[in-house]
């Protein structure tokens, strides 16, 4: 796949690094996001492979996580204008909640204005409050997700689409624009209520959670899962695997890998993080998305240390430059 964002992030036996937004946890005050755009510009300049945004349509206080607050597609369009090479990734767009025409229109627009940098992580959704708000039964999310993926793919493919689906019919109309490189990569998150065989057959990559990251047992278990998934890929070709972790990177480089918040956050120094990333790479992981919203140190400090001390061990891949257009 000659997609600039995809090739920047993924290659066999290699691991690259991305940064998950928001850089600070939302606690009821939008000022926590001030300056984040400039830090994303710095992340791009320093050579990270990707920046990730989340899709949280409604904030459920009981769930306790508002994502990056902004709509992911609108926000990525703004970040596209502030960056030049970094891949722009969603982690993950909720395909079971929105119509695939609207998803495709937003996604392909960002892909075109960014020169082919959008990598679309997708999911079936896990927040019960959102489904009745959309008038959708949560128990139907698995079927809607699979139908939306098929509809989306047919819509953005070259040529005039002919689609008959429970989600709608398209005939006698075209979809514009088309992707910059002919395809939008779709990265399935978790199972998205599908079988592992379905993910192997339909996804351009798989994003799954890492399990324990404070000792080598977690990466070993992850390696088994990745191998089982790759064994099911129909053509036996390369498909990338991604995982993510929320880190509290402390200034003591030798601080041991220590789980916090029941294992939801990893507190560590850079040596521990380098060790973890190496274990993930050996397990078959091709991209690690690191979040710092729960970290104690300022984001700018963590970004600088990651760029100077960790990124050289896991460099971003060379690939086709983003398409340039004078929009």
UniProtKB/TrEMBL annotation:
Keywords: Flavoprotein, FMN, Monooxygenase, Oxidoreductase. This is LLM class oxidoreductase. Residues 17-213 form the Luciferase-like domain. Pfam families: Bac_luciferase.
